[in-house]
Amino acid sequence: MTELTRNRVVSLIRFIRGQKVILDSDIAQLYGVETKRLKEAVRRNIERFPNDFMFQINKKEYTFLRSQIASLKRGQHSKYLPFAFTEQGVAMLSSVLNSPKAIKVNIEIMRAFVGLRKLIDANKELLARIEKLEEKYDGKFQIVFEAIKELMKEDEKPKNKIGF
Fold first, then answer.
1. For the chain, which residues score pLDDT lower than 70?
2. Which end of the chain, N or C, is surrounded by fewer C-beta atoms within 10 Å?
3. Which helix (H) or strand (E) segment is 18 a member of?
4. Is 57 helix (H, G, I), strand (E, B) or coil?
5. For residue 71, what pLDDT is reported?
6. pLDDT tens digits, one per residue of 118-144
7. Cα distance between residue 13 and residue 112, in whole Å
8. Which residues sit opposite 46 in a β-bridge?
9. CATH fold of 3-117, please?
10. Could you give the dihedral angle defined by the CA atoms of residues 49, 52, 53 and 55, in that order, rounded to the nearest 10 degrees?
């Protein structure tokens, strides 16, 4: 897959209930299958998807997502609440959906999750280094350190992009 496709996958990762997830409709689109078929495959193998692998979002979360994604066209989206797949759930999908395309897409999704995790870890490491420097220097640099920390706080919560 191309870098453009990998960036698209990263843009589909959302934060719900403090977890990085991808919605069933987004995964289905990437796999080139109907969301209905993806959900059928999952339901036939539901024992493979415990709550830490997949959960169904509630109505309040869905309403919030709809406002973030943009206005939805009538008939284009499911009337049922979507499933949200964590990184482990996406990995488990590879055992349920076994087409060559599904395997390739699954690899890219896993790489996107890993890349996002590395980015978050890098921010944590940078914050630890700044705190060590802060202990070393006197109050003259306190304003600079506080400003850097504030900038990093904004980056810790990745914002979902709208569109592609």
1. 1-6, 68-78, 134-145, 149, 152-164
2. C
3. none
4. coil
5. 47
6. 877 777 777 777 777 766 666 666 666
7. 8
8. none
9. Mlu1-box Binding Protein; DNA-binding Domain (3.10.260)
10. 80
How far, in Å, CA of 94 to CA of 106, rounded?
7
For helices 100-136 and 87-96, the axis angle rounded to 10 degrees is 160
**Hey, what amino acid is at 130?**
I
Cα 9 to Cα 76: distance, rounded to the nearest angstrom: 20
Nearest-Å Rg of the Cα atoms of the chain is 19
Q: Which of 121, 158, 155, 153 is nearest to 10 (CA)?
A: 158
CA–CA separation, 79 and 58 (whole Å): 13
Per-residue model confidence (pLDDT) at position 56: 94
- With a CB cutoff of 8 Å and minimum separation 6, the contacts of 113 are 13, 20, 87, 90
Q: Which residues contact 103 (CB under 8 A, 6 or more apart)?
A: 94
CB–CB of 85/22 below 8 Å?
yes
Question: What are the residue ranges spanned by the domains of the chain?
Answer: 3-117
Model pTM greater than 0.70?
A: no
